Amino acid sequence: MALHCYSPFSVLSQFRGSKGNRVIICADLLSALLLRAIGQKLQKSYRMNLRPLGVLRSSQDRGILPCGDIAALVYLWNPFTILSCVGLSTSPIENLAVIVSLYGAVTRRVPLAAFGLIMATHLSLYSAPLVFPLIFLLGYGLDAPPIKKFLQTRHGGVETGSTSDVSKQEKLTPTTQLPFSWRTVLHFVFWVLVWSSYVLVLCSLSLKQYGGLEEMFKRTYGFILRIEDLSPNIGVFWYFFAEAFEFSRNYLLIIFNLYILLTSIPSLMFRLKHRPCFLAFAYLAFTSILKSYPSVGDAALYLSLWALFVNELTDMEYSFFIFCGYIGFSLSAL
């Protein structure tokens, strides 16, 4: 009798598990395809920016690696991605929302970028500051070398005095001005307000019998910010708050929650405004390590975004040692 009662439950649980696993696998595959598309856009922009600097000899230079294909393969064969998929974690869905927002900004699809940002923020509070890299992507465009590189090339051509160099520098003048598209950014803000209102209305209607939006914020964002669960995890917050005195808990909560906003975002925004995709990668890597409840799925995302900049890594000295140190630091942090 016990076996008869247990077997339908086990079959139902296996069916639900297999169905959830299919959703996660589809999310991972879609994320890989979007990463490949983002990499192709970055590769095209990389070639266009190298040509005025005189580094790229032809449009079909074989020295440029297919960063999109590499990023997609790194994401699919990443052990952290496989662990998240096997463990039926919701991290692949969160990663998909982040990648959708980046893809929408890279391809200039403003409603899609706003939708991805709102869904990523709804699933994880730490995705909210991604609005700054997205604004830079929509305002300035794709990643480009620093403006001083173009200015140095321009002055070098003027000093030679040749007619061909002068004509080339005239073509470079619009690139060195680095214009900001306020119209696109305002369009993005409008769609952010539209999607956020839509999500809040749906949540208020679905949770009307369970306390409404106030209860939802308390049990989701409030749980993340107050760090109520001190069970051991791969993060660092639980250890500090388990050892801290009760009278200093509120002070430490303010310090730890504002640490990411006050240390990473202002400095990185000022330094990497011409590299918005790399800014998004740096922020995701920073928050994946210092968030209150990290997971291996967070590491899978920023390790895959790193592969989008494989061409820049090959131009660096001692790139192999930098890569090994980066992987070692990521593993030790987890």
Q: Nearest-angstrom radius of gyration?
A: 23 Å
Report the mean per-residue pLDDT as an integer.
75
What share of the residues does DSSP label as strand, in percent? under 5%
How many structural domains can be distinguished in the coordinates? Answer: 2
Look at the helices and sheets and give the structural class: mainly alpha
Low-confidence stretches: 1-17, 157-176
**N-end to C-end Cα span:** 45 Å
Envelope shape: globular
Helix content: over 70%
Number of helix segments?
18
**DSSP E strands, number:** 0
Biggest pleated sheet: none
Taken in chain order, the helices and strands follow as HHHHHHHHHHHHHHHHHH
Membrane topology: Multi-pass membrane protein
Family: Belongs to the PIGU family.
Pathway: Glycolipid biosynthesis; glycosylphosphatidylinositol-anchor biosynthesis
Transmembrane segments: 20-38, 112-140, 188-207, 227-245, 251-270, 277-296, 316-333
Descriptive account of the structure:
The chain is mostly helical and 334 residues long. The protein folds into two domains: 256 residues, no CATH class; 33 residues. The protein is 75% helix and 0% strand. The chain contains 18 helices and no strands. The radius of gyration is 23 Å and the shape is globular. The two termini are 45 Å apart. 28% of the residues are buried. The N terminus is likely disordered. Belongs to the PIGU family. Its main location: endoplasmic reticulum. Pathway: Glycolipid biosynthesis; glycosylphosphatidylinositol-anchor biosynthesis. This is GPI transamidase subunit PIG-U. Keywords: Endoplasmic reticulum, GPI-anchor biosynthesis, Membrane, Transmembrane, Transmembrane helix.
